[in-house]
């Protein structure tokens, strides 16, 4: 582990970058800052893995609506997003969404490559 501030920079040169329940804490602009810093640190051939709850999976993630409500009251701007919203955010920040994999927890693992 390497300490730091992902709003400032991310350690460069890793094969994979893992963000688990990070993006849902922030508004779109803050997420974009985080994702752009990750993208700037990534070499070709690396991958971004983002574990998030998705609110549009037809009930596949029963926890997502409750987490969305919790984020509404406990953060200034956090929220759960749809797969389409996350894909759009990734694209804006230099990523191509390759896959969304369902996890046993009900959450999803979004797999994205540098675009």
Please provide a written account of the structure.
The chain is α+β, with helices and mostly antiparallel strands and 115 residues long. It has 3 helices and 4 strands; from the N terminus they run βαβααββ. The chain has a 4-stranded mixed beta sheet, covered by helices on one side. The longest helix has 14 residues, at 28-41.
Summarize the structure.
This protein has 115 residues and is of the alpha+beta class. Helices cover 30% and strands 23% of the residues. The chain has helices spanning 28-41, 64-74, 83-92, and strands at residues 16-20, 47-52, 95-102, 108-114.
Write the layout of secondary structure elements.
Elements: E1 16-20, H1 28-41, E2 47-52, H2 64-74, H3 83-92, E3 95-102, E4 108-114
Parallel strand pairs: 1-2
Antiparallel strand pairs: 2-4, 3-4
- Order of the strands making up the biggest sheet: 1-2-4-3
**3D shape:** globular
Portion in helices: 25-40%
Q: Describe the sheet with the most strands.
A: 4 strands, mixed
What structural keywords apply?
alpha+beta, four-stranded mixed β-sheet, single chain, globular, 23% strand
């Amino acid at each position: 582990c390497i300490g730091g501030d992902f709003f400032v920079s991310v350690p460069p040169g890793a094969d994979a970058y893992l963000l688990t329940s990070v993006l849902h804490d922030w508004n779109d602009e803050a997420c974009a800052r985080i994702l752009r810093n990750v993208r700037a640190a990534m070499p070709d051939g690396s991958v971004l893995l983002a574990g998030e709850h998705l609110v549009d999976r037809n009930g596949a993630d029963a926890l997502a609506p409750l987490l969305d409500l919790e984020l509404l009251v406990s953060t200034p701007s956090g929220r759960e997003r749809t797969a389409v919203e996350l894909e759009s955010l990734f694209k804006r920040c230099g990523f191509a969404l390759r896959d969304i994999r369902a996890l046993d927890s009900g959450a999803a693992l979004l797999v994205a490559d540098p675009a």
